[in-house]
Amino acid sequence: MAKDHGKQIKDDEKYEALKEKGMSKEKAARIANTPDASKKGGKAGKLDERTKGELIQEAKKIGITGYSKLNKKDLIDRIRNH
User: Fold this and answer.
1) Rounded distance, CA 29 to CA 34, Å?
2) Which residues contact 75 (CB under 8 A, 6 or more apart)?
3) What are the GO BP annotations of this UniProt entry (predicted)?
4) How open is the CA angle 73-76-78, to the nearest 5 degrees?
5) Per-10-residue mean pLDDT for the chain, 82 residues long?
6) Are the C-beta atoms of 64 and 82 separated by less than 8 Å?
7) What is the domain count for the chain?
8) pLDDT at 34
9) Looking at residue 2, what is its pLDDT?
10) Between 52-62 and 72-80, two packed helices, what is the crossing angle to 10 degrees?
11) Is residue 24 part of a domain?
12) DSSP labels for 9-66?
């Protein structure tokens, strides 16, 4: 049974599994709190195939700042490593 992390973590088991894989607390919490993360099953579009506008929306959603000054390649790197 997974440890209870309180209201801020929606899926404690997923959070624990991601932390064990070496993800940061922030990234593990963000993924564990995404309601459809497990339902996507790898069907999310590849970042390289998205437009810069779509990447900017993703950056806003996950809290990346300074995205307006980045080119597409750097924006993809920031999203992947956030």
Assistant:
1) 9
2) 52, 55, 56, 59, 67
3) DNA-templated transcription termination
4) 110
5) 67 84 85 66 72 91 88 91 82
6) yes
7) 2
8) 75
9) 59
10) 30
11) yes
12) -S-HHHHHHHHHTT--HHHHHHHHT-TTHHHHTT-SPPGGGS-HHHHHHHHHHHT--S
- Residue 2 in any domain: the answer is no
Q: Judge whether 32 and 14 are in contact, CB under 8 Å.
A: yes
Q: Assess contact for 27 and 14: CB atoms under 8 A.
A: no
pLDDT at 66: 92
| pLDDT reported for residue 70 | 92
Q: Kindly give the interhelix angle for 25-32 and 12-20, rounded to the nearest 10 degrees.
A: 140
- 37 and 20 in a common domain: yes
Report the distance separating Cα 80 and Cα 46, nearest Å: 11
Predicted confidence at residue 74, as pLDDT, reads 94
Residue 1 included in any domain: no
Domain enclosing residue 72, as ranges: 47-80
- pLDDT at position 27 is 83
